[in-house]
């Protein structure tokens, strides 16, 4: 089974983060959580309330972290997941995140992005010429990054799988697991 790296940080959306971690583990894969440091990250819950023009945010659970970005050896993993929430806004400025994300895109390995997650590869110019979903208000950001934006729950572009946010996780998970299962088998460690 695959070792999948999950890049996250404080203010990541709880469902965007925990659902894929649990789904990967349920499927027999090893999901390894990386963040700026090894302390548990503080997740948030985003919801859609009547009368609000934007989503609301409340404190969520904490998620244990396995290793810091600086300690990630990307060659030890077969796939990458970048959950949404507000974490992508700031983890994309970390030079180790750039190093990690480039590794997966340069080798055409499976990459899953959820909600605001595409902000990370977009910041590095990696979505140019690609097709992606994202939280719908990010459409302009994705297009400015050179991507074709699709408002759908499970957009597959080669080995990249994206979605609009946590309501799409069942469709995204099926698509990502399918891409992951088609990927070359991991080398024996």
UniProtKB/TrEMBL annotation:
GO biological process, one term: proteolysis
Domain spans labelled DJ-1/PfpI: 3-177
Matching InterPro entries: C56_PfpI-like, Class_I_gatase-like, DJ-1/PfpI
Similarity comment text for this entry: Belongs to the peptidase C56 family.
Listed GO MF terms: peptidase activity
Entry keyword set: Hydrolase, Protease
Gene3D superfamilies given in the database record: 3.40.50.880
Protein name (database record): Protease I
Species in which this protein is naturally found: Nonomuraea maritima
PROSITE patterns: PEPTIDASE_C56_PFPI
Pfam family, one: DJ-1_PfpI
